[in-house]
Predict the 3D structure of the following.
Amino acid sequence: MPIPEKIGRYEVKGELGRGGFATVYRAYDPRFEREVAIKFLPLELQHSDPKFRLRFQHEAKIIAQLEHPSIVPVYDVSAEDEQPYFVMRYMGGGSLSERIKEKPYNVEDAVKILEAIAPGLDEAHSKGIVHRDLKPANILFTENNVPLISDFGIAKFTQGDNASDLTGSAIIGTPAYMSPEQASGDPIDGRSDLYAFGVILYEMLVGKQPFTADTPLGLALKHLTEPVPHILDANPNLPSWMEKVISRALAKDPHDRFSSAVEMVETVKACLRGENPLTESVSATQMSKRKNAAPTQPAQPSSRSLSRAWIWSGVAVVIIGAIIVVSLGKVFAAPTAPQTPVEPTAPVIADTAAPTLAATETEAPTSEPSAAPETETPTAESAPTESASSLPVVGGADKIAFVKESDIWTVNVDGSDAQQLTNDGLPKFNLQWLPDGKTVLYMSGKSVKTVNVETEVEDILTTFLSAEYFESFSVSPDGKQVAISLNRELFIAPFDAEKLRAADRKSALLAMGGCFFNKLMIQKAQWSDDGTKLAIQFIANDGGAYADTIRLYDVSNCDNLPNAKIDEFPAIRFKFSKNISSFNWDGDLLFFLTSAIRNGGFGDLAFYNLFTHKAEKAAPYENNCCYRDATFSPDGTQALFAFQDIRLGSQSPINLYIVPADSLSAPRKLTPLLPDDFFAKRDEAPQPVMRPAQ
């Protein structure tokens, strides 16, 4: 097939790689003046299945909405002469596979790379997206040596809703990195990617994969049947605890693995610090299952699994070489937004006595809480009162909006009258109540949308289809301004709905007037109560690794914005995770921060005081992990958060809790707002926000 001169508007510069199921070209996008990589999928797929194109378009849109700093972004999804293709960032720094071939990594350098990509992998899993072909060849570097995950979801939607539609009983993936369940053709979830994540760590430290065989079938069977190799036999210079890390990462049973990529990284980091976080945490169900199993025998493939594997040895082995795609090496290119180092800053008030927080290591499970918990008794502050509209009121709020299975729901603050407002099932984030008290604003993909809680009418406020990153849209409490993070740049503009509908790019936002700031890689923003200050979350460069940081600015004077920094944390203020899954501001002096340890964003909870410059770790649920999406009530007296009990492992339900903010440090038994089975998914991101009482 000759190389085309153009694909759509893209000017093709050359071919980067070719396989049976994909051809990748290097191209130039004249509209946005940037180099891109274009991946074609074959006509044979849609010819073999009439439904393929519809599935491709639907799932491609979901993949395109997966925005994260450690995932190669998808810019465009389209078709040329009915042949579907993706347009992605072009990476110029080569692949991890190439770097491993040069020499193995030491533990410290290996964990830095995995630490950079782990949050992106967990973010995808939180949205129900499984990579299915995670391997060093799909971890690519920018020209500034920043690693990103590529080819996210390609195998998933190539396979379609039913594998038999396209490939019979074929197994899709790369044999050397396949989890046992993937190799056997059984259903998989994000834990299959975590197995591959562990194989990558092994390969980085040893220079070769844990299992080798002469055929793909033989390699798959080894993942299914052979015990995990002792990594110290392959590299005796490694610390002894690495055996336990690899053994857990490559466990045959998905329930026995790390619950998230970040948890595995944090475990290695804790071991490097001399701590011992590898005490196993299992649910009662898992413990019973292990007691009844032969402990020394590896898992054996079922007849169904072997049958699928033998089918694979024929036709499917060709499919593997194709659908795995080419090891793209230097396929994608330099980032369009420069990785600007964060300028050094001095604290407003030096505080050498700031407390030290545990850096998000997973706490060892205990059969009994460390302190005898007390069941929370409603206080005068937390007990519901009645509002003028007869709705119960807690902390100045009467309703809560949140996300369940990618749709918007509302519930009264006493847990009654749960209502579903949307039903499109697309990922949603950045929820907030608008000042009218009737409208929930949220983001989905590259769009800002609203839904009226009374009429359930949905509307699209604005869309930035050409944006590489569109991560935050925050309306000020008085409804007069909006802070927008677009392509990691900050725009503060008037909140004018009509003008925003027509603003689809940077130039239109600048034309609206207001502030513009592009000195940091800005992701999120929150307003102070009076609308004169803005707290931003940005990506700092911490010794070559990502570190989420919060900085507070006075935005009352745009001209002085670069010099108007008020405070910055965690930074030198206190020790906390480099991965901040969420932060919330009471609009005055207090902040909540949660780290990302497991299941897409559950971790430690801390609150920080701007006045004292001190932080305190909180674990109100029986002194145990893990929390996410902590937020203040409108009057600041209550704390609302999602919790998942790490002691219950993968079986732990998610629920929402409201407790007085001044008693977060007192561990006790809490009463959930909703039934334990309300959130069916274990990696749900509820993102609750409280409405001021009407």
